[in-house]
């Protein structure tokens, strides 16, 4: 057992630590049912709607033998009575060994990690960060490409508000990627992330066109949903919501190894006929979230890779 950790941002993690977490995820893919967290209580506090993230964190906790408490709608919590986030966190810390939190305010997870006495896992904070999604994205890229190094990664759609793509840029700084940002000007990659690329020697190109020729050199094609809930001007949303739709006929020039990722949910940015294409990987990607989140729980609660490898609590299905 090592020290406990928060999991608030991917940017803090070294290359060595990221690869260590991916190796943990690999172990959980071999055997996901264990009792490593037996007797522990996990609290999931979701102040913002979620399906996959919440369910996969809860499944990861259950498959590791923990019990789960929490809420999936802030309206059912005491925040409706005016309770502060600090008081909610301190109160829940009395009951739980670790807290998974999704919040609509950027920086909420960092704040939580400063006030809560138990480890905090950031399950998404506003348009800022989504580090657990990022870890499952890295695992999906590694599984499909056999490496994380020297890849051409194309990010498509909502690059302004898309916290998953912001996290991915930071995580990939260690692996010499070339990014291609494909977005309408209203949803272009924010200046701060382009500056981040320049400061860390990450190559990138920007495009507004989206067609078979533009994406022909991609190793990873990462599609994103235009997020209606982030727009204050609905007219602007209507203008851009259908700008980039991936259709099956656009994949004729794709490299054999190319895989399509999407953090989900999708609205209409990937046509349903793409689902049967061998390049499609977004459903398997979501499944990889279980293994990545099992790894995050163990990392945060001080369970080492060696302990996982030598674990005798594996439960065969």
Concise synopsis of the structure shown:
This protein is α/β, with parallel strands linked by helices. Helices cover 34% and strands 14% of the residues.
Strand order of the largest sheet: 7-6-5-8-9
Give the low-confidence spans.
Answer: none
Strand element count: 9
Distance between the termini: 27 Å
**Average pLDDT:** 92
- Radius of gyration, whole Å: 19 Å
Strand proportion: 5-15%
Order of helices and strands: HEHEHEHEHEHEHEEHEHH
Output the number of helix runs: 10
The computed structural class is alpha/beta
Estimate percent helicity: 25-40%
- What general outline do the C-alpha atoms trace? globular
Largest sheet: 5 strands, parallel
Question: What would you note in describing this structure?
Answer:
This protein is α/β, with parallel strands linked by helices. Helices cover about 35% and strands about 15% of the residues. The protein has ten helices and nine strands. The chain has helices at about 15-30, 50-65, 85-95, 110-115, 130-145, 165-170, 190-200, 235-240, 280-300, 305-310, and strands spanning about 40-45, 65-70, 100-105, 120-125, 150-155, 180, 205, 220-225, 260. The strands form two sheets. A five-stranded parallel β-sheet has the order 7-6-5-8-9, with helices on one face. Strands 2-1-3-4 form a four-stranded parallel β-sheet, with helices on both faces. β3, α4 (about 110-115) and β4 form a beta-alpha-beta unit. The two termini are about 25 Å apart.
């Amino acid at each position: 057992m090592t020290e406990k950790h928060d999991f608030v941002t991917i940017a803090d993690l070294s290359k060595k630590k990221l690869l260590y977490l991916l190796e943990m995820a690999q172990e959980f893919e071999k055997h996901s049912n264990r009792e490593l967290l037996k007797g522990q209580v996990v609290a999931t506090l979701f102040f913002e709607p979620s399906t996959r993230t919440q369910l996969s964190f809860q499944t990861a906790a259950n498959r590791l033998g923990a019990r789960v408490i929490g809420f999936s709608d802030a309206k059912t919590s005491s925040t409706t009575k005016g309770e502060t986030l600090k008081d909610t966190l301190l109160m829940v810390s009395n009951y739980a060994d670790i807290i998974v939190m999704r919040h609509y305010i950027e920086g909420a997870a960092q704040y939580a990690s400063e006030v809560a006495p138990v480890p905090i896992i950031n399950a998404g904070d506003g348009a800022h960060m989504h580090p657990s999604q990022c870890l499952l994205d890295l695992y999906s890229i590694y599984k499909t490409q056999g490496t994380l190094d020297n890849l051409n990664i194309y990010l498509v759609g909502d690059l302004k508000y898309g916290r998953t793509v912001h996290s991915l840029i930071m995580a990939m700084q260690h692996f010499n990627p070339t990014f291609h940002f494909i977005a309408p000007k209203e949803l272009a990659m924010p200046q701060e992330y382009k500056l981040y690329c320049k400061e860390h020697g990450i190559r990138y190109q920007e495009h507004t066109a989206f067609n078979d020729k533009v994406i022909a050199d991609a190793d990873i094609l990462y599609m994103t949903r235009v997020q209606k809930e982030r727009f204050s001007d609905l007219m602007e949303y209507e203008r851009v919501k259908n700008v980039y739709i991936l259709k099956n006929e656009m994949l004729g020039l794709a490299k054999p190894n190319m895989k399509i990722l999407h953090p989900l949910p999708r609205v209409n940015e990937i046509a349903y006929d793409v689902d049967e294409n061998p390049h499609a990987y977004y459903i398997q990607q979501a499944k990889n979230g279980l293994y990545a989140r099992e790894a995050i729980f163990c990392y945060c609660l001080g369970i080492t890779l060696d302990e996982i490898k030598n674990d005798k609590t594996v439960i065969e299905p």
